[in-house]
Design brief:
Layout: E1 11-12, H1 16-26, E2 35-37, H2 41-47, H3 52-61, E3 66-71, E4 88-92, H4 97-106, E5 110-111, H5 126-133, E6 153-156, E7 164-167, H6 173-180, E8 184-185, E9 207-208, E10 218-222, E11 231-232, H7 239-255, E12 260-263, H8 272-282
Parallel strand pairs: 2-4, 3-6, 7-8, 9-12, 10-11, 10-12
Antiparallel strand pairs: 1-5, 2-5, 3-4, 6-7
Bound molecules: threonylcarbamoyladenylate (TXA) and magnesium ion (MG).
């Protein structure tokens, strides 16, 4: 299933066998819960308890690249396995027209983790999605290249807790702050933010961050003008363009079978927070 962020491997959220097949295709640890995708706000409120803060976020960013973790309202609609046994559910209304059409036609929540094998870069084209997990899919929907290219931002909105950012993504911290004030950080406890595995989004070649040039045998991915690089995330230094190109650039660099992939520093502002998060995880630095 295409979405505006990345391609997803989609399954009926209510069907534990279908959900188990998704975990198996990705080789994903089953303690890492999935996002339930729905067509609109009404469908979201049927499965999740959305308080005033969550509703304000939904009004501002849905449909779009924001995932809200909230208490589960309908345990059958999003099965235990999809939630990894948690009493919360991650819900998102994607903006891609084909995703919307699929969700509206199906009528129930659809889990869709990024369609990569666990630990690998997320696919941003149908071709990359097929190369990752296509052999497990019954049907492929071609929605063209993903516009955003980075996964959704995940926030938790739980009773008695501040709104927390669990994963940076397509909606920036600055955009969220304007709706719900300064965000709290995810708790250190890994079970509350289970998506944060050490090596994630990783190409086969090792990744060297904040590089200024290619070393021997390295492919160099640049950012901004004036760099002598093999691939450039954005020659004009545009972070949205860099986000859209990130995972396909990592794949393209990997196809050259380099000793390592060197990548230029990316500013931490705006979408740069999510880009740097993915790069640090791809390099294996973040627990
Ligand atoms: O943009 C996206 O979000 C893409 C597209 C396909 O929609 N999907 C995606 O799904 O990135 P996935 O499964 O790769 O990432 C889901 C993230 C993980 O970090 C997971 O730990 C977190 O959401 N998550 C899901 N349910 C949660 C919950 N109940 N509590 C905390 N985190 C949760
Ligand atoms: Mg993923």
């Amino acid at each position: 299933m295409p979405t505006e962020t990345v391609y997803g491997l989609a399954a009926n959220a209510a069907d534990p066998l279908a959900v188990a097949a998704v975990y198996a295709a990705k080789g994903r640890p089953s303690f890492n819960p999935l996002i339930a995708h729905v067509a609109d706000l009404a469908a979201a409120t049927a499965i999740a308890v959305l308080d005033e803060r969550a509703l304000a976020l939904a009004a501002a960013f849905w449909p779009g690249p924001l995932t809200i973790v909230a208490p589960i309202a309908d345990e059958a609609a999003v099965c235990d396995l999809a939630r990894a046994g948690l009493d919360t559910v991650a819900v998102r209304v994607p903006a891609h027209p084909l995703a919307h059409a699929l969700l509206a036609a199906f009528g129930g929540p659809v889990v869709a983790p990024s369609a990569n094998v666990s630990g690998r870069p997320s696919p941003t084209t149908l071709e990359d999605a097929i190369a990752e997990t296509g052999s497990f899919a019954a049907v492929w929907l071609d929605g063209g290249p993903c516009q955003i290219g980075l996964e959704s931002t995940v926030v938790s909105v739980l009773p008695g807790e501040p709104v927390r950012m669990l994963r940076p993504g397509g909606v920036t911290r600055g955009e969220l702050d304007t709706i719900v004030g300064p965000l709290a950080e995810a708790e250190a406890d890994a079970r509350r933010s289970p998506g944060r595995l050490t090596r994630h989004y990783a190409p086969n070649a090792p990744l060297r961050l904040d590089a200024s040039a290619a070393g021997v045998g390295e492919v160099f991915i640049g950012f901004g003008a004036g760099r002598d690089c093999d691939l450039n995330l954005s020659a004009s230094g545009d972070l949205a363009e860099a986000a859209a190109n990130l995972f396909s650039a990592l794949r393209a660099a990997d196809h050259l079978r380099p000793a390592a992939i060197a990548i230029a520093p990316i500013p931490l502002t705006g979408l740069g927070e999510a880009i740097n998060d993915r790069l640090r995880r791809a390099a294996g630095f973040v627990g």
